[in-house]
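User: I'm writing a short methods note and want a consistent example. For tRNA threonylcarbamoyladenosine biosynthesis protein TsaE, I'll paste the sequence; you return only the structure tokens, no commentary, since I'll be parsing the reply automatically.
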Amino acid sequence: MINKYALFVNFEVIMSCSFDFHLVDENATVAMGNKLAAIIEQGAVIYLHGDLGAGKTTFTRGIVQGFGHTGKVKSPTYTLVEPYELVRGNVYHFDLYRLGDPEELEFMGIRDYFSETATCIVEWPEKGGEFIPVPDLNATLSYVGDERKIVINSASERGVAIVEKLNNR
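Assistant:
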């Protein structure tokens, strides 16, 4: 389903759109991450929203595997960031759930991770405050009975292009 509305970014009007999909199980969540990985290009910033256990790390596993990673994908809950250096480019998975103060991100050099040569996925982005850049995509995972639902909203021109490709696949 496509929802479009105007979004003002840097005084430009950008069309925003969304993609939503029901995920029947863990495999479907990983597959959706793979699908997104096939579309996104390096430099994308993805915020993940959802309750504990909603599937944010599972979805990230699909993205990281879609970029070519064959090993385990673990949650960086205690390390803040899990780096993946892959042939297609670097992917950095952040989990800010246990972050005590957003300034800790400045001390760890978080700004160095965000570049046009890396894809950054951020769980619990609201805890990062002004220390993390605005996203291209906001992905929200939620419970629907025993299943999950994902809604992906664009938040930039790059995000609009990604969501339009998702909707056309």
